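Hi all, long-time lurker, first post. I run a small reading group and we've been trying to get comfortable going from sequence to structure in the token notation. Rather than ask abstract questions, I figured I'd post a concrete chain and ask someone more experienced to write out its structure so we can walk through it together at our next meeting. Sequence below, copied exactly:
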Amino acid sequence: MFKRNCILLAAGLILSLVPIFVSSKTEDSFTMPAKYASMVGDYRKNFAQVTGYEYSGLHWKQYVIIYMNKGASIYENNYLSYITHYLADDEDEEEEDEEAEEEYDFRPYEKGTIFLKEHFADAGRKPGQPLTTVLMVKREP
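-- Answer (accepted) --
Happy to help. Here is the structure in token form:
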């Protein structure tokens, strides 16, 4: 039950966020195309950095950093709620799964919320050369 709910949550998030692969790389940083530059500005300075470097098999075995223009407290809340239930999940205890469903505290992101993910190559178990940036904008469902 827990895994189905996580999949549904992820699907809802994906459907309401429109990913746009936007940047190219230079030797040591990212270059944002002019079309999107006004949307994100100096994001490293003006957006909240909600993760550190995280190695991710879901991101082509690269390191990622996530920035947000607003809603960092919502991200933190949703992450903590997910982790709490993920760690407590026990597939043998179906009754507890049903009770745990009621305890989820996932909050929606506001329209206009921007997630910006920087991707870095793996350089021997540490972030290496910048590769790409993905920009996701929350739209109306």
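A couple of things your group might point at:
The longest helix spans residues 72-88.
Helices lie at 2-16, 34-40, 43-46, 72-88, 94-101.
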